[in-house]
Amino acid sequence: MNTITVLAVDDEPFNLDLIELAFMDTENMNLIKAINGQDALDKLQHINANVILLDLRMPVMDGFAMLEKIKKDPIYSKIPVIIVTANSEEKNRALALGANDFLAKPVDTVELKLRTLNYTKLHKSQVALEELNKNLDKLVIQRTAQLHVALKLAQETEYEVSLRLGMASEYRDLETGMHIKRISHYSALLGKLSGMDEEQERLLLYSSPLHDIGKIGIPDAILLKHGKLDDKEFKLMKEHTTIGGLMLKDGERYPIIKAGQIIAQQHHEKYDGSGYPLGLKGEEIHIYARIVSIVDVFDALSSKRIYKDAFPLEKTIEIMKDGARTHFDPILLNLFIDNLDKFLEIRDSFTDVDETPHLINLIEEYR
After folding, report:
1. CA quadruple 217, 220, 221, 222: dihedral positive or negative?
2. Angle at 330 between CA 162 and CA 176, to 5 degrees
3. 347: Cα separation from own chain's centroid
4. Quick check: 265 and 271 in contact, CB under 8 A?
5. Tens of pLDDT, residues 191-213
6. What is the C-alpha separation between 319 and 297, in angstroms, rounded?
7. In this protein, which residues make up the domain named Response regulatory (predicted)?
């Protein structure tokens, strides 16, 4: 039922009776009477008033004091207040305190009724709008949370696909999947240390596993050769950078693919320009590739492979220091070495599981 609740506040019983008379033929009218401001405040706690009709001159608590209190209270401040008084000189003071309208006594009951009903409609509309906004806010929060979950799942899926593609390329030359995970986390950490924002860190984390994706296009005879590659074989081996770049080209709409394409193509470029495939020099080499170059060499030197044992940490760092300004970006290399303990924590978190004997047996069986 669409009830209208009006609180009439006046110390004169006749005036309250007159107000009641004004609404005699109004359906669903709930008229609450109060004889002073304090009485009205007490009754407000138990009703949902749509309009307050307020006299100003009353004992105990006058209309000014009550008006000031309710307009400062967030629970009641939006209830329209119509001042009903014989003293028109007090109108401005009441309006300054927040009154919404003013009627002079003796009051015209028809005008009183119409103004009250109009303010009732206004108040109900405001309440309905606030409730709608609250519901919309809740819905927005709910939908935003759902979008965050969906985005997180999409990002995790991207990372998983990137990891597995990288692992596919590494398994071809008997590397382990942990190498890929170490490269991923090493790269993100070095990116962070270099001052990258979270989005760039995420791109490095997700795209660096694609650095050797081009190995998929290299013949087994070269990838699985036990001895040193001859010049012709090494020339063909170097083509994995070009192949990786081609495999991931035209990925501008997909930031991870685009970053992966840059890394796959440039991670064997050297700071002095002696690298391949493009002979890029210094900062011509994208920072993503400069970062992956450092961590890839570190992992290759410090990890056991089918063709070599792991170098001791001191020897690994010595070799990498020798490559400053020739192979590696010296600033990034210094950042890496200065924070070596953090990279060692990552290495210890992703230790290799030696699957190569099983893979070798499979390869030999089908040769």
Report:
1. positive
2. 30
3. 29
4. no
5. 999 999 999 999 899 899 889 88
6. 10
7. 5-120
Cross-strand bridge partners of residue 82: 53, 101
Alpha helices in 310-355 (DSSP H): 313-322, 330-338, 340-349
Q: Is 250 left (phi over 0), alpha (psi -120 to 50) or beta?
A: left
Geometric angle at alpha carbon 90, from 86 and 95, rounded to 5° = 115
Q: Is the CB of residue 260 less than 8 Å from the CB of residue 213?
A: yes
Q: What does the pLDDT look like over 32-61, one tens digit per residue? A: 999 999 999 999 999 999 999 999 989 999
What is the CB neighbour count within 10 angstroms for residue 10?
26
- Identify the structural domains of the chain with CATH numbers, from first to last: 4-137 (3.40.50.2300), 173-366 (1.10.3210.10)
Give the DSSP letter of residue 273: S
Q: Is the pLDDT of residue 305 over 80?
A: no
**Encoded tokens for 337:** 């070495």
Q: How many angstroms separate the most distant Cα atoms in the chain?
A: 114
Task: Quote the CA–CA distance of 23 and 2 in Å, as a whole number.
Answer: 15
| CA pair distance 162, 155, nearest whole angstrom | 10
CB 290 within 8 A of CB 332: yes
Reading the block at residue 188, the tokens are 């993100």
Which residue stretches of the chain are H helix? 13-22, 37-44, 63-72, 91-96, 109-172, 177-193, 198-207, 220-223, 231-237, 239-247, 255-266, 287-302, 313-322, 330-338, 340-349, 356-366
